[in-house]
Amino acid sequence: MRNLAIRFGIRAIDRFWHKSHNLARGQNMATIYQRLGRKIRELRKLKGLSQEELTEAAGLDLTTVSEVESGKRNPSLKTVYKISLALKTSLSELFSF
Fold this sequence. Notes:
Blueprint: H1 2-8, H2 10-20, H3 29-46, H4 51-58, H5 62-69, H6 77-87, H7 91-94
């Protein structure tokens, strides 16, 4: 990434990132949080887990899981990792939206 930044400049990398992640300029990070939350909820329901069961398995509190699923919270990587372990899925699966 550093070589690309040197060769093409930060603005070009930013444009590339937005295009490759299907984000238009002006969209904020809340959109990503909402998409991640929907994916987590979808996987949780596919596995037949309630929010309470997910929170217990992940070692998180119910408020955290509820806010992550609703896109109201910016979860840390550690939190997302705990959720992925509890759902028995990879991080890449959680971010495939």
